[in-house]
């Protein structure tokens, strides 16, 4: 009987409260510890890269400079992984075709493979002709200009990730090189025509990506989702769409991702894409028929047919991103290594394998440690995605890059992918509004303003915030790079 006394009961209640406080404290400590562990691992990676650079270069008068540059190159790669890769994996995660852990694993493997297998082996020392090499006064000044560009672009990517804004890595690098180049050689050294093309891409990339994604979503809605016999329509059109995706990605990888392995023209890439598209279409005709067996004639079942193609497209986008963008990311580091070891600031610089490895593994570490936040934002917080909509975004990214390359237009893969997400969301808004008006017109009443407001399917705050980050990337990194360059010259 004593164990049920009021005193014992009060003691148990007190013990439960204490245990609850301890559990709350443990969960809070775990939440605090996770980001600290990630930051700790990132710091260790940066230090390892610095020591590895010293081992590869060997003792010499410029070794310390290369070690510092390698550390900042690793920091840059970590930030690219945290920020830029979200555009490839976000739609697949948002559509529930991939779990977060699955997306991180696939992206890490394919980004690394793309970087090391098909990464560019030559890069312009001034990131695509932004600043004339002859205008920079000697290799010493050139090294500090590249160091300032590397630091500035890394810091901005870190800040953008913290703010939740996916931005273009290439634009950050371009802004950094431009700013330090102006500080080193004046405004006349800048190739303003190239800068004009980059500014134009702020509009071209998202508009093209959004328009193409919206067109494909409209096609799927009309000819598959809204068809009386949805399964028959799916058996006809889904293999065609999968073949189109295969052909687009084959051409995309041949033209953009495999330059180191094989050099192909646009016409050759399109022919390869056509052959791959026809082959995949023929293969998937029976596969889709088999998948559709036993399905019901409803929209929910149709989404399952797009799951596997969406996963494959996300993996291919990651491979192409690793092959195409890592060279730009580690370009300043490669330029510094070349200038210090050869005392020359030439137009073209070969990227050593160890420099590419820093970029490849740094992107993977950055993605695993810090990438989930922006993956969720791109895939879940801008607009609601399912397998069909996310498929349209991925297909739009490949087709837009191919079309822009054929027309000679500069595009950013980041802007294209996000433009596809925006395009899908705004098209759904327009379609919902059109259907509501048609329904209310039959009922003889207008659409109420509050009802129209509830149908906003794209979060305007994210759109405006991301667009603002895009616009300020080049000027902000340019100003920061110029300031860092002046500070370096003052200190050395």
From TrEMBL:
GO terms for biological process: phosphate ion transmembrane transport. One of its GO terms (cellular component) is membrane. It is found in: Membrane. InterPro entries: Phos_transporter (IPR001204). One of its GO terms (molecular function) is phosphate transmembrane transporter activity. The keyword Transmembrane applies. The keyword DNA repair does not apply. Keywords: Membrane, Phosphate transport, Transmembrane, Transmembrane helix, Transport. It is a multi-pass membrane protein. The chain crosses the membrane at residues 37-57, 63-81, 93-110, 141-160, 172-192, 198-220, 232-254, 266-285, 305-323, 351-370, 390-407, 463-489. Belongs to the inorganic phosphate transporter (PiT) (TC 2.A.20) family. This is Phosphate transporter.
């Amino acid at each position: 009987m004593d164990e049920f006394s009021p005193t014992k009961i009060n003691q148990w209640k007190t013990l439960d409260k204490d245990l609850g406080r301890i559990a709350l404290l443990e969960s809070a400590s775990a939440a605090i510890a996770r980001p600290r562990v990630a930051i700790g691992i990132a710091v260790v990676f940066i230090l390892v890269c610095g020591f590895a650079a010293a081992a590869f270069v060997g003792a010499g008068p410029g070794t310390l400079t290369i070690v510092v540059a390698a550390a900042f190159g690793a920091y840059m790669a970590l930030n690219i992984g945290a920020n830029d890769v979200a555009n490839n994996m976000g739609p697949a995660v948002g559509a529930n075709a991939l779990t977060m852990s699955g997306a991180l694993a696939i992206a890490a493997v394919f980004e690394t493979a793309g970087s090391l297998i098909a990464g560019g082996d030559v890069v312009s020392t001034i990131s695509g002709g932004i600043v004339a090499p002859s205008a920079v006064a000697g290799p010493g000044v050139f090294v500090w200009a590249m160091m300032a560009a590397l630091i500035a672009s890394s810091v901005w990517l870190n800040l953008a990730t913290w703010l939740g804004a996916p931005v273009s890595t290439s634009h950050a690098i371009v802004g950094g090189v431009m700013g330090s180049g102006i500080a080193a050689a004046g405004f006349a050294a800048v190739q303003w025509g190239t800068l004009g093309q980059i500014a134009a891409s702020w509009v071209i990339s998202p508009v093209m990506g959004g328009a193409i994604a919206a067109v494909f979503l409209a096609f799927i809605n009309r000819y598959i989702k809204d068809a009386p016999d949805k399964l028959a329509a799916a058996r006809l059109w889904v293999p065609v769409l999968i073949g189109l995706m295969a052909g687009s990605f084959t051409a995309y990888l041949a033209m953009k991702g495999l330059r180191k392995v094989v050099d192909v023209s646009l016409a050759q890439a399109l022919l390869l894409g056509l052959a791959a598209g026809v082959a995949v279409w023929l293969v998937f005709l029976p596969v889709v028929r088999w998948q559709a067996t036993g399905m019901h004639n409803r929209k929910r079942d149709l989404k399952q047919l797009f799951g596997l193609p969406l996963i494959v497209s996300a993996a291919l986008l990651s491979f192409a991103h690793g092959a195409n963008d890592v060279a730009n990311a580690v370009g300043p580091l490669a330029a510094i290594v070349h200038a210090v070891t050869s005392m020359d600031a030439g137009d073209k610089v070969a990227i050593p394998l160890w420099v590419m490895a820093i970029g490849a593994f740094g992107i993977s570490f950055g993605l695993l440690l810090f990438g989930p936040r922006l993956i969720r934002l791109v895939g879940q917080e801008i607009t609601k995605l399912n397998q069909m909509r996310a498929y349209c975004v991925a297909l739009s990214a490949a087709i837009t890059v191919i079309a822009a390359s054929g027309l000679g237009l500069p595009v950013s893969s980041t802007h294209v992918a996000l433009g596809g997400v925006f395009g899908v969301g705004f098209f759904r808004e327009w379609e919902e509004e059109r259907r509501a008006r048609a329904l209310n017109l039959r009922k003889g009443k207008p659409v109420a303003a509050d009802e129209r407001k509830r149908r906003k399917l794209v979060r305007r705050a994210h759109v405006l915030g991301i667009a603002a980050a895009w616009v300020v990337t080049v000027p902000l990194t340019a100003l920061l790079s110029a300031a860092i360059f002046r500070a370096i010259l003052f200190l050395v």
